[in-house]
Amino acid sequence: GGVGKTTTAINVAACLAGQGKRVLLVDLDEQSNLTFALGVSATLPNHIGAFLLATAAQARKWAVQEVGPNLALIPSSDRLDEYVPRLFAKTNYATLLSRRLADLPNGEYDYVVLDCPPNIVDGMTYGAFIAADGYVVPTEPEPFAVRGVKRIIERADK
């Protein structure tokens, strides 16, 4: 935590959007820092938990919010923890994020940037590893952080 994951996600997305690419940011962290930074309320009912539980048509209609030119957001919520039991009860929970993102219209976004929680054992982080084509791990240049990055790489490669 606190090493720049959200700041990196925002800046990468902004650079891509500035190049004319359509970017979807997804806030997977119940701390909702990405959501807050983009000026969206973390108390609205349309957030990542609802997106994952909704049907494909419902999710696209009300979970994705435009937040700037070429930039959209699926916000998080301060109440995301209330959705976790229902999310874990879903069959194939680990692939739920991948499947829901695949339900979005083909070609609507050039890039999807996932802002993960600070905990690698979090179900959202695990789902992000499965959904992602690649990942960036901001870290401090110190021994404990390097050890943590090794664990993340091992986890992501599984």
UniProtKB/TrEMBL annotation:
Q: Which intervals hold domain AAA?
A: 1-155
Looking up Pfam families in the UniProt record yields: AAA_31
**Which superkingdom is the protein from?**
Eukaryota
Gene3D superfamilies recorded: P-loop containing nucleotide triphosphate hydrolases
Matching entries from PANTHER family are given as: P-LOOP CONTAINING NUCLEOSIDE TRIPHOSPHATE HYDROLASE, PARA FAMILY PROTEIN CT_582
This chain's protein is named AAA domain-containing protein
